[in-house]
Amino acid sequence: MNTHVIVIGNEKGGSGKSTTAMHLISGLLRSGYKVASVDLDFRQGTLTRYLENRQDHAKGQEQELPMPVHHTIDEMPNESWLDEVMADLADRVDIVIIDTPGADSALGRQGHSYADTLLTPMNDSLIDLDVLAHVDVETQKISRPSQYAEMVFQQKIARARRDGGSMDWIVLRNRLSSLDARNKRLVGDLLNDVSNRVGFRVVDGLGERVIFRELFLKGVTMMDLRDGDGEISLSLSHVSARQEVRNLIAAIKLPEIR
Q: How far apart are CA 245 and CA 251, in angstroms?
C-alpha cells in the first residue's frame, strides 16, 4: 500500500491525541496531501466532533476549510470493518490518520497494527510516563516497559506478518513546561532510557495553550488561522504553535506528494 498510515495512540486520556490528530490533518491538507481520517473511539469520538464543528463553522462563515475523507463508527464494529476501510482508502489518498481510543481495546490494537508511523502524545510528567514504562520509586530508574509498550511490540509483529511493513514509533512530549526544569530533565532522562529499550524516537510536541481548546468549538486549527481574518490576531505564541505543528510533520517520514 502506497498510502502512509499515521496512528495516534495512547491508552491514557487527556494527552492531546485528538488535538494532535486534527492539527496534523489540517497541516497536511494545506501542504497538498490527500488525507483521510479514521476515528476508532466510538465512545468519545472527539476527532469526529472536531470535524463536525469544522464543517458547521465553514458553512456558517461561508469559509472554505479543507476536509479529509472521514470514517467513523457509532458502535463496536465487526472485526473486518477496519480492514475494509483501509482497503478502500489504499492508493486513494496519500495519508490516513487513525485516532485510537484512550483505553485498551481490540479495535485500538488493530488500528495500531496498521501504523507506518505511530505517534504517542504524552504530557511531560512522570504520571504520563507510566503509560510507557514503570519507574522504580526508590531509584527513579526504569524498572520495566508498560503493558502499552508491550502491546505496541505485539502490533509491530502483527504488521510485519501481514505485509512485511515496519513501524516508526514517535513519542511526543506535549505541554513542555519551562518552569519545572528538574522534572523536565528527569522525564527526559527516563524517556531516553526507555526509548533505547523499547525502540521509539522522542520529539517535542504541542505546547500548553488555551487557544487549542478554544479552536475546538470552531473546528479550526492553528494552521487555518490567518492574521487579520476578523476573528483573531496572531500573536508570537500562535506563530510558535504553528511552527510546532510544522516541526512535527517534518519529523514524520512522509512520502512525496503524488
A: 10
Per-domain residue ranges of the chain:
4-251
pLDDT-based confidence at 2, cuts 50/70/90? confident
For the domain with range 4-251, which CATH number is right: 3.40.50.300, 3.50.50.60, 3.10.310.10, 3.90.1150.10? 3.40.50.300
Cell triple for 39:
476515528
Chain segment 185-198, per-residue pLDDT in tens: 888 888 888 888 88
Give SS3 for 220: coil
Cα distances from 203 to residues 126, 179, 211, 217, in angstroms, run 17, 19, 22, 28
Question: What global pTM score does this model have?
Answer: 0.90
Is-contact 177 208, C-beta < 8 A? yes
* Helix, strand, coil fractions of the chain, as percent rounded to 5: 40, 15, 40
The length of the chain is 258
**Residue found under cell 527513579:** 140
End-to-end CA distance of the chain: 14
